[in-house]
Amino acid sequence: MIEVIILAIALSMDAFAVSIGLGAKKNTPGLALKAGFFFGIFQALMPFIGYLGGKGVLGWVEAYAHWIAFGLLALIGAKMIYEGAHEGIEEAISDITNKMMLILSIATSIDAMAAGFSLTLLDANPYIACLVIGIVTFAFSWIGVFIGNKSGSKLESKAEIFGGVVLILLGIKILIFQ
Fold this sequence. Notes:
By secondary structure, the protein is mainly α. 81% of the residues lie in helices and 0% in strands. It is globular, with a radius of gyration of 16 Å.
């Protein structure tokens, strides 16, 4: 279960970084809840879709599944590190509408769908794992809005880089110990 919590924290860093950016622009308790719900729901749903896809192809690629999981997590991690080192999408956001939150939620959770494949290799119930990912993302997103209001967007890139490093390390662990 510790692997699921680590995965949840790493996957939530994208949403956390975006939430910090949103909080730097506008801060209300309503925005924090909105960010938590939008990001939490999508971050819970997308890994489950990835898990189902992974289960569908696991029989064909079972001998290479640990390499595929490592490759996906390493690519996602590298992408997060790259994005953390460059300007984020939050700079272009002027109005935080439900439509904008939906777009941001999908954009930050696409990576989680690919990471969901790794759930097929973890000894964890996928329903509980996705619920944990959603709850952790809700909490990080909710807190991120308040942190963004206090610190501006200074921590935004650091959160994304941290998440990327953790995903790469989790991929290496799957590669070595599976």
